[in-house]
Specification:
The structure holds two protein chains of two kinds.
Chain A (H helix, E strand, L loop, with lengths): L1 H7 L1 H14 L1 H10 L10 H23 L8 H14 L8 E4 L10 E4 L1 H23 L4 H20 L25 H8 L11 H25 L1 H11 L1 H6 L4 H27 L9 H14 L4 H30 L9 H15 L8 H9 L24
Parallel strand pairs in A: 1-2
Helix pairs in contact in A: 4-9, 4-12, 4-13, 4-14, 5-6, 5-7, 5-12, 6-12, 9-10, 9-12, 10-12, 13-14, 13-15
Chain B lengths: L3 H24 L1 H32 L6 H20 L7 H31 L7 H23 L14 E5 L2 E4 H23 L1 H11 L1 H6 L4 H26 L6 H16 L4 H20 L10 H15 L14
Antiparallel strand pairs in B: 1-2
Helix pairs in contact in B: 1-2, 2-6, 2-9, 2-10, 2-11, 3-4, 3-5, 3-9, 3-10, 4-9, 6-7, 6-9, 7-9, 10-11, 10-12
The chains are: A mainly alpha, B mainly alpha.
Chain lengths: 404, 336
């Protein structure tokens, strides 16, 4: 049944090949990096972890922006929520107590809450999804561009809350500007280690980066799989219907609010997991990491890859992730070496992302890997005047432009 | 069809704010009025930027995200124009300083009118019939480009011209003083607003703007040059941003990324007043200016500047949820 459909799809074969190449990456990265020209542009394993984490967020954001067509300019809020969930449940921050639950390879007397990181990832996903629902409920009635601004507002409020959250009525929730660090690493504990040789704790392992890399890869694959399957599900088709024509979708019986809220919740879920995992990799959650530009960086990945296309989000995410982690710095050094002009390329990274966004919107709005349906929408136009309009009194939209 | 509970919550919030203000005013009256003038000054600058958002939104239904960054860049350019091109300094005579500021204002206004219209021509015009979010996304990208132009030219240094104008008070009642360098903001903003109102209400081009805002196709059928009208709107918005940039430069430090936060504040002002409505933008900007100043300046139960951004966005979200048409929204959006 379902499996049979996969085999017919050639892109799954390609995906399997790429996955295999990626799994073996730590084996041959040393060789690649020692090559003359290619080597300088090859990301390290640690860099690749960061790239994968951001790609995961891009795939999550793609659910909101690409599938459901709701522009979210505050996705960084979900990243922050995930990171701080990890910080709360797997660090020494709450030193008033000492509570361990499946923590791997840690001294059982250690203060603070220490839960198994695997559990924390799930908690982070659920907590962030709930945050997404809470943000969505009052705001999803708003029209597209207003919604974008409101999400931006939440994307600014949550980091500021985190930054000022060191004395909320005397309670230190977030440790203010210093952030929370260190955060526990994932691991399988002593029992599984002796039984089948799984690592006790990533942080203490001599293969630390490789372990983080393989786990990140597994998480990304999980995310991609979920998102591909979601797209073809009843919910996914409802999202696409809403994106194309809200009024028609509602007339066909798609519950608008519930469907949109689900897209928020699911998009947030992956953002939360990615955020928590990244916090664990960096071993810290710092408020300075969560700023508006991150949201735009993620949006740029989705746009570059192609809105609504999962593989597009993956490709866009890896390209921009690479530029962000190492690429721009390498290119800058290259330019400086060959021409002698030091352009300080990384300093202008957001200007470059801005250029990419504008260029894509003007010349190839459907992205590198265009999703067929979305491309048609962009070419033929859609009715994007929603039914639930903010202005019942009819001041702004009684002009009713329809873009045909 | 708004449920009664929601409006009661909204009104209760407003009541709490008023009580908080009154108590503060009685506890520390001098502080209260000094802060009031700070709020008026900031509000006037916000108004100039907010008008740019509202003008463009009124005519294209586009949130011109790059507008805040245009404002910041205009302020930075104004610093170059003032100090390097015209060459005034703190030791110049008063006449030279005033003349220099007015001349600098004129130069930056023309430059940014052209620049803003140019951005519309390059980036937004092609997307006029695309889904509305496409144009908004482009505007977000444009915002980063403009910001990085500022970064490339001026690096991360702060610029200011706050030493140019004297801080001697216009009037002084007890401990309450209103210095000239703040009064100058009102002195420039009010004539600008009057000129803008005149332009939109009384000129042929203004009439064309209002017509295009109401119905683009119909006005094109009536022989209005829609493209030119939209260009004029962007030019107006750009020159208003330049006035705001100059006034901000005369008060505070600014650098390439100042425009992000200020742009969002100004946008919130425009939404609060009722986006598309010119009077509303000014009213909203003054309100936000006061709220921000009171929050940062007063002492009794005040959240403080750490929370300013949250408060401004809280207002934005609150307005959009409780009263999305804004304070003056029941009028026509283009009614100047």
């Amino acid at each position: 049944m379902a499996l049979g459909r996969f085999r017919l799809n050639p892109s799954w074969g390609l995906a399997a090949g790429l996955t295999l190449a990626a799994v073996l990456y730590p084996q041959y990265v040393g060789t690649l990096r020692s090559l003359p020209v290619v080597g300088e542009f090859t990301p390290s394993v640690a860099g690749l972890v960061v790239m994968i984490v951001f790609t995961m967020m891009a795939v999550g954001l793609n659910v909101v922006v690409g599938y459901a067509g709701l522009l979210d300019l505050g996705y960084v809020a979900f990243y922050a929520a995930g990171a701080y969930t990890a910080a709360w449940f797997a660090s020494q921050h709450f030193s008033q107590t000492s509570w361990h639950f499946g923590s791997a390879g840690l001294n059982p007397d250690m203060l603070g809450i220490h839960m198994s990181l695997w559990l924390v990832l799930i908690i982070a996903g659920v907590f962030t999804a709930v945050t997404g629902i809470l943000i969505g409920l009052p705001t999803l009635r708003l029209r597209g561009d207003y919604l974008a601004i409101v999400t931006l507002g939440f994307g600014e409020i949550i980091p500021q809350f985190v930054r000022n959250g060191d004395s909320l009525f005397g309670f230190n929730l977030t440790n203010g500007t210093f952030g929370i660090s260190p955060i526990d690493a994932p691991g399988f504990g002593q029992t599984l280690n002796t039984a089948i040789g799984l690592p006790v704790n990533y942080q203490q392992s001599f293969q630390r980066e490789n372990l983080f890399f393989w786990t990140a890869l597994a998480l990304l694959l999980f995310t991609v799989f979920c998102c591909v399957r979601l797209r073809d599900s009843r919910l996914g088709r409802a999202w696409i219907a809403i994106r194309e024509d809200e009024t028609a979708a509602a007339a066909m019986g798609v519950p608008l609010m519930r469907t949109k809220t689900w897209s928020y919740a699911i998009g947030a879920f992956f953002g939360g997991i990615a955020g928590a995992y990244y916090a664990s990799f960096k071993s810290g959650a710092f408020p300075a990491d969560f700023y508006f530009n991150i949201s735009i960086f993620l949006l740029c990945m989705v746009i570059l890859g192609g809105m609504g296309s999962v593989w597009g989000a993956v490709v866009g995410g890896m390209i921009l992730g690479w530029l962000n982690v190492e690429g721009l710095a390498t290119i800058g050094t290259k330019i400086a070496q060959t021409t002698g002009v030091n352009l300080e390329v990384p300093k202008y990274q957001y200007g470059i992302y801005g250029l990419i966004i504008v260029a894509m919107m003007l010349f190839r709005p459907s992205g590198l890997i265009a999703e067929r349906r979305h491309k048609r929408e962009l070419e033929e136009g859609v009715h994007d005047t929603p039914m639930y309009d903010v202005t019942h009194e009819g001041t702004l939209t009684d002009r009713n432009e329809t873009n045909d | 069809m708004r449920p009664g509970v929601v409006s009661i919550i909204g009104l209760a919030l407003v009541a709490v704010v008023i009580v908080w203000l009154v108590v503060n005013a009685f506890k520390t009256p001098e502080l209260f009025f000094n802060v009031f003038f700070i709020g008026l000054t900031n509000g006037a600058v916000y108004a100039l930027v907010a008008l740019g958002y509202t003008l463009v939104y009124g005519i294209l239904q586009l949130i011109n995200f790059a507008h805040g960054d245009m404002f910041a860049l205009s302020g930075l350019v104004a610093s170059t124009v003032l100090f390097s091109v015209i060459g005034v300094g703190a030791d110049s005579s008063m006449l030279a300083i005033v003349g220099g500021i007015l001349l600098g204002l004129l130069i930056t206004m023309v430059a940014f009118a052209t620049f803003n219209a140019g951005i519309e021509f390059v980036a937004y015009r092609r997307l006029r019939n695309a889904p509305r979010l496409a144009a908004l996304i482009t505007a977000v990208g444009m915002s980063f480009i403009v910001q990085n132009v500022g970064l490339a030219i001026y690096d991360v240094d702060f610029r200011s011209a706050s030493g140019l104008l004297p801080r001697t008070p216009v009037f002084e009642i007890g401990d309450v003083a209103y210095p000239w360098n703040k009064f100058v903001v009102v002195l420039i903003t009010v004539p600008t607003l009057i000129a803008l109102t005149w332009f939109v209400r009384a000129t042929r081009q203004g009439k064309a703007m209002r017509a295009v805002a109401q119905d683009r196709e119909a006005s094109s059928m009536m022989g209005i040059n829609v493209n030119r009208t939209i260009s004029v709107t962007f030019a107006l918005a750009g020159s208003l941003a330049a006035v705001g940039g100059m006034l901000f430069l005369l008060q505070f430090n600014m650098r390439y990324d100042t425009g992000f936060e200020l742009g969002l504040i100004a946008f919130t002002s425009a939404v609060l007043g009722g986006i598309g409505n010119l009077t509303g933008a000014v009213l909203g900007a003054l309100l936000i200016g006061f709220i921000q100043a009171f929050n940062e300046g007063l002492t009794w139960y005040t959240p403080g500047s750490d929370w300013t951004r949250s408060i401004v966005f809280g207002i934005l979200i609150g307005v959009l949820v409780f009263r999305p048409e804004g304070l003056l929204g029941e009028r026509t959006p283009e009614g100047a």
